Structures are given as C-alpha cells and as structure tokens.
Amino acid sequence: MQAVTLGPAGTYSHRAARAVADDVEFRESVSAIIDAVEEGAYDRGVVPIENSIEGSVTETLDAIAETDVAVTQEIVTPIRHALLAQTEEFSVVASHSQALAQCRSYLESKYPNAKLEAVASTARGVERARDDPNVAGIGHPDNAGGTLNVLAEDIQDRSSNATRFFVIAPASERSEAGGKSTIVVYPNANYPGLLLELLEAFADHDINLSRIESRPSGNRLGDYLFHIDFEAGLYEDRAEDALAEVEEIASRGWVKRLGSYDMQHVLY
Ligand SMILES: O=C(O)C(=O)C[C@]1(C(=O)O)C=C[C@@H](O)C=C1
C-alpha cells in the first residue's frame, strides 16, 4: 500500500500516514495530495481535516468538495509541539499556519517580538531552522535530529491539542460500511428553515451528527456548501432514509457521499 501526505518527512501528517502504509511519499499541499489520489497515483492519501484548537482545515474541506475521492478512515492523533532551533538567539519562528496558531499564546508571551513565518508544513519550518540560526521551527520534537536543540516542549496553548485526519482513496473505493459517514451537501437554495430541514432529516431518523461545517460555495456571496459527518454507516436503513430526504431538499444542487469509515486513535 502506497500513501501520499504532507511533506517533507517528519510532519504530523506523516506520523498519521504511517498507521496506514509502510510506503509514504510527500506533496507540499493538501490540494496536491487529494489531486494525486483522485488521479489514482496513490492507494491512499492522509490529510488533516480538523484541529481541536484551531478548527477546520479549510483547504482540505474545499479540496474534498471539488474533487471525487472516498473517505475510508479517520485518524485522531494528539499534537504536542516543540520549539526547535540552533540557539536561543532567533528572531523568526517558522511553521505551518495551523501550528503557529495552536501556539499563539505561548509565542505572544515568550517571544512577543519574533516574526512568525507560515511555511508549507511543520517539517518545512524545522528545515528552515536547520539551515538558518536566526530561525526557530515548531514541530514534533523528534525532528530535532543531531543539529537542533529542543528549546521547549508542549508549547501548544492547550494540552489536549489533537488533530483529526481523513484517509482518502480513489472514488471507486467508497464504502457503505463503518460507524461514521461524511457527505457534502450543496442545496443551491436559500429560504427560511433550509438548514433546519437538513438537520431534521438526521434527527427524525435518530442519527447523531458529529460535525457540520459551512463553506462558501464560491458561486455567490452568502451561498454555502455543508460538510456533514454523522454517526451511522451508509449501509443502514436510517442513513438511507435520512439521505433520501437530504437529496430531496438539495434537489436544485447536489449531495456527495464520501463514504463510511471507522475511527482510529494513533499515538506516536
Ligand atoms: O505541518 C504538519 O506537520 C502537518 O501535518 C499539517 C498540520 C495541519 O494542517 O493541521 C497537521 C497537524 C497539526 O495540526 C499541524 C499541522
């Protein structure tokens, strides 16, 4: 099994991907990962979807809505960031924008004058620190290797920091089996009670929602797509009945079934 995820080696995505495949390759953006899986170049892709401090990874939500892939598994991992640098004398902190945001309070209190630099991934920020004594990176402490010092550990603003990843596969691998499912709904309509009707379709069939997120459709201001995760498999009658109602409500737009899957907790 060959998987693709956010690189270079040493990202949190890489750590999650190791639970899925022995052979892991890298891309520099979530969209590039999802495109590569859609084209069939890899069996699996691993992409971050949501963080417990910073919320949704919007690049992933948008790419999943635009492409045709399957979600085959969910992975939840704790995220414990370290500050890595050659010396204490740095003026720039480089990391993924999500990681910088997850450590916002720590950075503001300890390094209020540091310039924050958003790069493609935490591992890319650590590489910047390895190349430049003026730069510190934020990432997993194992990335220090021999050349960087771990100046501080557990610098995320909440100790319970965790990120949820989706394992994606080509659309042909969509499954109806699993305890959870994900759909994207584009109603292409706007009237009082539209969202209530969508939610009632699940409530009426006794299905618990675990996440609902609205994203702009990009078509016009105030027009939205809804990303919905719910706790039922698509093989279940109650899910089929609820989705029939959702499809009726969205008859002017579309409903994309990304598949059913189970969740795995990965510690590293
Ligand atoms: O840069 C990384 O290490 C990633 O795997 C990306 C990412 C993210 O996009 O949320 C993954 C987990 C952490 O929340 C921080 C960054």
From TrEMBL:
<dbReference type="InterPro" id="IPR002912">
    <property type="entry name" value="ACT_dom"/>
</dbReference>
<feature type="domain" description="Prephenate dehydratase">
    <location>
        <begin position="2"/>
        <end position="170"/>
    </location>
</feature>
<dbReference type="GO" id="GO:0009094">
    <property type="term" value="P:L-phenylalanine biosynthetic process"/>
</dbReference>
<dbReference type="InterPro" id="IPR018528">
    <property type="entry name" value="Preph_deHydtase_CS"/>
</dbReference>
<keyword id="KW-0456">Lyase</keyword>
<dbReference type="InterPro" id="IPR001086">
    <property type="entry name" value="Preph_deHydtase"/>
</dbReference>
<dbReference type="InterPro" id="IPR045865">
    <property type="entry name" value="ACT-like_dom_sf"/>
</dbReference>
<dbReference type="Pfam" id="PF01842">
    <property type="entry name" value="ACT"/>
</dbReference>
<comment type="pathway">
    <text>Amino-acid biosynthesis.</text>
</comment>
<keyword id="KW-0584">Phenylalanine biosynthesis</keyword>
<feature type="domain" description="ACT">
    <location>
        <begin position="183"/>
        <end position="260"/>
    </location>
</feature>
<dbReference type="Pfam" id="PF00800">
    <property type="entry name" value="PDT"/>
</dbReference>
<dbReference type="GO" id="GO:0004664">
    <property type="term" value="F:prephenate dehydratase activity"/>
</dbReference>
<keyword id="KW-0057">Aromatic amino acid biosynthesis</keyword>
<keyword id="KW-0028">Amino-acid biosynthesis</keyword>
<protein>
    <submittedName>
        <fullName>Prephenate dehydratase</fullName>
        <ecNumber>4.2.1.51</ecNumber>
    </submittedName>
</protein>
